[in-house]
Amino acid sequence: MTLSRRSFALGISAVALAGCAGTGTPTVTGRASPTPGMTPVPNAGFDAWVASYRGRALSRGISESTFQNAFRGAGYLPGVIERDRQQVEFTRTLEDYLAIAASDERVSKGRANLRRYDSTLARIEQAYGVEPEVVVAVWGLESQYGERRGDIPVVSATATLAYDGRRGNFFEQQLTAALKILQRGDTTPANMTGSWAGAMGHTQFIPTSFEAYAVDFTGDGRRDIWSNDPTDSLASTAAYLKRSGWRRGQPWGVEVRLPAGFSGPFGRGSTRSAASWAAAGVRDMNGAPVPDYGPASIIVPQRGGPAFMVFRNFTVITRYNNSESYVIGVGHLSDRIAGGAPLRSGFPPDATGLTIDDRKELQTRLNRAGFDVGTPDGVVGKKTEAAISGYQQANGLAVTGKPSQALLQQLR
Ligand SMILES: [Ca+2]
Predict the structure, then answer these.
(1) Predicted pLDDT of residue 91
(2) Considering the entire predicted model, what is its pTM?
(3) Ligand 1 centroid to 211 CA: how many Å?
(4) In a domain, 344, yes or no
């Protein structure tokens, strides 16, 4: 189950990070999505599959009326299959990932939400023992604090993917879990919306995760993670982390300085005691030995970049999403939301020799020259590449769409 959750959360987070999950508008009514390809189209094969699935659903305890209500208006969504096929496994550098995951905007919105929901978060901490800033950081990464929850109907999306069959068993499980949620009355078919892959609500639970971990924290008898009120979602996230072994008061990890010639061991497969790392010369960024937070590992996710000592809570966050970048993103964002400073170690220049400050300058200068890259963040994505191409074309240069030292010089 955690593996499945992983593959989706990864996809979702990557999309949310790219800034284009859902429509960017919180779903309020759950009306049919206007997104192209996300409105049901007739499909005889799909209908035949639904007819055959009906017997399996009923044998798993879904009532006839739940089934009929859920599939009224549901149908095949070609856009979901398109998205599934487009899903490419690409890796950002940790530097790029953190520039987006812990951007100034995400940090300041996180701090605002920490204040806005302080009493709710305090009650959640009391109930589940997970610190407010950690819950808020997950919320920030999963849906940009509820701004991008997704407006695609979950029954249609999961049924389409189950019928398609590429990961048919997995999505049939998600569909059945979705029907169980409807049967229990946590929400209505019209309200049950999410990402193209069925991740729902403020913290993007897939239906089986919802079944396992979601809680009703408002006390109205419904586990409502679709509501504009994030309370049930935030409590469900804390419940998930608690059940995965979260230890309150323990950090996920700390940035560390490694002594010259340090030869490891590196990686989460090797744990040592605090005393053992201290004896090997590992220090925190102020030069002090790291306190004893239990068995600890040293990771350097990007060559030449920051090193971290990580602890049990790091592993707990991997149960939410098994990507090292994601965990560092949540962990570092939570530290920043709680008032912490940016990482102290820099990252090395990229393959073109540009540092993140160079890349931000390049973007700022492109904006000034009239080639829109959006807010300069130092991350070279499609928009920046298009702006570079536009600039190169307008200036009679070879059009590469790629940043370079020469380009930066020219823009200066
Ligand atoms: Ca509730």
Answers:
(1) 75
(2) 0.89
(3) 14
(4) no
